[in-house]
Amino acid sequence: MSMPSSADPTDPPSTHAELFPDNPVLVALTRGDAVESFHRGAAIALRADGRPLLAWGDVERPVFPRSALKPMQALALLEALPDAPDLTPERIALHTASHAGWLMQVERIREWLEDMGLSEANLECGTRDWPLDPDAARELARRGGRSGPVHHNCSGQHAGFLRLAQAMGAPTAGYIGAEHPVQRAVTAVLGDLTDVDMATMPHGLEGCGIPSPALPLWAVALGMARLADPSGLAPSRAAAARRLCAAMAAHPDMVAGPGRCETRLIRTTTGRVLAKVGAEGNMVAIIPGHGVGVALKMDDGATRAAEVALGLVLEALGVLSADDRAALAGVFQPVERNAAGVETGHALAVTAPEDGDGDADDPEVDPWDEDWDDEDPKGPDAG
Amino acid sequence: MSMPSSADPTDPPSTHAELFPDNPVLVALTRGDAVESFHRGAAIALRADGRPLLAWGDVERPVFPRSALKPMQALALLEALPDAPDLTPERIALHTASHAGWLMQVERIREWLEDMGLSEANLECGTRDWPLDPDAARELARRGGRSGPVHHNCSGQHAGFLRLAQAMGAPTAGYIGAEHPVQRAVTAVLGDLTDVDMATMPHGLEGCGIPSPALPLWAVALGMARLADPSGLAPSRAAAARRLCAAMAAHPDMVAGPGRCETRLIRTTTGRVLAKVGAEGNMVAIIPGHGVGVALKMDDGATRAAEVALGLVLEALGVLSADDRAALAGVFQPVERNAAGVETGHALAVTAPEDGDGDADDPEVDPWDEDWDDEDPKGPDAG
User: Fold this and answer.
1) Which residue of A has its CA nearest to B377?
2) How many domains does chain B have?
3) CA gap A355, A373 in Å, rounded
4) Could you tell me the residue range of the domain that residue A148 belongs to?
């Protein structure tokens, strides 16, 4: 009776505690009168100068931000094409998107490919079984359609990669490879915006085939803060960041899709808060008016929890109005219903216990600490 | 800047630590060369006399076992109809199932309803958007079909509830209600098999509308152990338990569906290990040859983790042969691939660190304790 030796990822150089930090519970799901499941994670909000507003859990450990990196990655295209008329705000929003796969999104991506003299066959993202959104999948099924690369939730980003390859005079084939000029440019932007030496980070492969780097959560938030407040960046990069934020604010339906968390948040706040999900429980936010960036990662990879945890962070930052809160209750405090439509429970953002249990890293700024309010009495609104 | 008071489920009577136990990491998912996500949970394996073989994490806290209760719940029907010829082993397996929604399953349930003089309209489980299994959903979509109550993963259990109502001379309408004779009989069986006073337990509503009681994890495992070894039960109940296990062993395709974890496990072990998943990260196993019951619940509700954690428990119990292990590698050590079919990472069962960190409740029997092997040197094989 022995444990399978192949099942032990705790070999050197990492220890069990480093691999699996004891992060705080951020979200609970109830059933009837009790908690059914709960989700742990880490979250951080920073200003562009690196000053933290909140930090919960282990924000040092490298995590794979996945598609939450897209707003940063998009700067490579925007800087390469500062004034190309074909790169419309709508297409910029699609380039930052994990789109739901609705016909109205897919058709715009097809048009973009045609404008480039390309087609769906040039997309190297692969084909998913269904569009990301179940309603969009049903729409496709009802029309008798079949899922292709253009339905992949990353196809808008990939269309932009193809456009970047053309702009660079590089071959379009192979644009997903780590050594292709497109991905080298994208990786360089990530390193610049986060102050991280990308060569030292763990890395993997994305669901859509491009490189998937890991980054400390603080670095992800720092990059988002610099998109929110690009005043410290070089002028051409700062202009690209402003253009990016304006495009996401103007086209929330393209960033995700009708009914989805990021789209509803951007629309409700009329772009005061921009957000982007990443697979495996990642979420980032860009808050331009306050110059704040947010990054969070749920330990277990649950998107349902990342959405509710984003609400907790935005509440803690004081950036939601009473009207916002009411309009977004379905996103940040969702009610669970069964197949007959009867309420069975709900998701709750969870405040940490008074003793700070679960905050593994003793963060510099701990909103659960009663003294924290004294340190920054008005939150980001004072900034 | 304050936390939303409505978001605090830590009000009395439960404390934060009671609601959110510090359970051990049981499963990790890698991307490239690093851990991407990880899952905590609790697990216990018992003999029918209550003697624990292993206990990891908090096995005292009530959890909602969801559909993992179905094998126990099925005894109500089997005891009411000890020799009815229409209650075939195939239908018994469907009554314990969370079926995938394949045509071959749906047609058998329709036939069963017709045999009772009933139809799909008598099912009160509600309608899900799609069958549970994506492949089954695609099958339905390709045929131009629409999802109805019979496609709900619980429709086989509900067909059996209707049969039980007829057997009891009770009205079929309203059979999902807590006060209906069918659900009262089902609740009574659960209390008997687990030695728990069901009236004292938290309760909620199931996804399919029936009562959803919570139970301590040890009690769930005890009930499964008594199904595995019914020698201590009343003769009629013991006969029903044996009939149940034989039906699940004979019809693995009906218990879940082709390709799914439980079906593959039952088929590979030719019924030496019976398993049943429950929503929100629940899994149980019945090991008749050893008289052992297993129950586990992932904190975060992830089915993908419950499946891998079941493999870890079965390894710890020593019930898998080398051939079983090889045949089930795709279930218990799954490789993750992206949309292009390229490997991006894998899921790993995780052994606990030597210091026992994360075992909240100091379980009586701790397999991570070096002395444990001495206590039970041969595992369940010795029983």
Assistant:
1) A1
2) 1
3) 17
4) 23-352
